[in-house]
Design a protein that fits this description.
The chain is mostly beta strands. It is built from one helix and 22 strands. It starts with 18 loop residues before the first helix and ends with a strand.
């Protein structure tokens, strides 16, 4: 439910105290409690993101809307929550087309295309192979839907409570966002239960000197093999503090142009830690384009880990240049 203002007419002298009026009073109380109560996770937090409050006792955390897939179930989890006394779970039954369900945050929270969104939550699945997702849905200033960014998409979920983080860049025109938490998507036939808790928005980047080279001065060149190779000298051996799960590299990438196409050179870049790879960025441009790589380092928390840049080009004999500008971990 949202907040519904009580009109002057409803409380004019001589007006009866109706059930509808008292319901409005209660609904507003419940709404405000969900906004300011125990579930709020700090400034800029997601209302009732810890699922602690269900003041209207409908089995759905206040401030959220539950949607179920075929044969799916959803419930507040009180036996084994991770953050506070309540979590939320979706139950999926085996069978083609069956699924669990998803929670949508009711409120539209403000954002700006020039400000990244950092999120974290706690998650696990009783069966790792469930298809669980977290999506950010973007809206313009009059709250018209624009697009969706999927920030978590896994069929290899943790099987005990695990902190997850996400980084999303609002697209052009995005001024509001909502989060959608999907437990047991219907394209994967499996039985299991997906658990969620402690969904919150972070306002802080941990700015950490990830880059071995000085900012603006880390440039590496590879001459194009057709599959990724480690870039010599790019290795960053750093300590990953426990609780840090992602490193975000902000940089630039370009390819070079020798002679006439075809073939057209196309540069690709990514980072790796062990055999875990970041997203891939590619460009056809001979001028630098901005890149963001997000590398999952959750498997090497609490250890010294090597982060290694990889490049390749679609063609031989073309130079790709990647310049790392900043890196953050969070
Ligand atoms: Ca909770
Ligand atoms: Ca409720």
């Amino acid at each position: 439910m949202g907040f519904t203002a009580i009109t002057q007419a409803e409380i004019a002298a001589g007006q009866p105290v109706t059930q509808a009026l008292m319901q409005k009073v209660k609904d507003n109380d419940d709404y405000l409690y969900s906004q300011v109560g125990a579930g709020v996770s700090g400034e800029g937090g997601i209302p009732n993101g810890s699922f602690e409050i269900d003041a209207d006792s409908d089995g759905v955390p206040d401030g959220w809307t539950k949607n179920l897939y075929p044969a799916g179930g959803g419930a507040i989890e009180t036996t084994n929550p991770s953050h506070g006394a309540q979590a939320y779970k979706f139950i999926q039954q085996a069978g083609p087309g069956n699924g669990g369900g998803y929670l949508d945050m009711n409120d539209y929270l403000p954002c700006s295309p020039v400000q990244p969104l950092l999120l974290e939550w706690l998650h696990y699945a009783s069966v790792a192979g469930m298809h669980n997702l977290v999506q950010i849905r973007w809206f313009d200033k009059v709250k018209v839907y624009l697009s969706t960014t999927t920030v978590y998409d896994s069929t290899a979920n943790p099987v005990s409570w695990t902190r997850k983080t996400a980084f999303a860049i609002p697209p052009a025109g995005a001024k509001f966002w909502k989060i959608r938490i999907i437990g047991g998507y219907t394209d994967t036939d499996i039985a299991g239960t997906a658990y969620w808790d402690g969904v919150s928005r972070r306002s802080d980047f941990v700015d950490y000197p990830v880059l071995k080279h000085d900012s603006y001065n880390a440039e590496w060149i590879s001459v194009g093999p057709t599959s990724y190779t480690d870039v010599a000298g790019s290795e960053q051996l750093i300590y990953i503090p426990r609780g840090v799960t992602q490193v975000v590299f902000v940089g630039q990438l370009k390819t070079s142009w020798f002679g006439s196409p075809p073939p057209i050179p196309q540069a690709y870049s990514r980072w790796r830690v062990g055999t875990t790879y970041s997203n891939e960025v590619d460009t056809l441009s001979t001028d630098y384009v901005g890149t963001v790589h997000v590398l999952d380092v959750s498997a090497v928390q609490g250890t010294a880990a090597s982060l290694i840049l990889q490049l390749h080009d679609t063609n031989f004999s073309f130079e790709d240049t990647y310049k790392a500008l900043y890196a953050y971990m969070f």
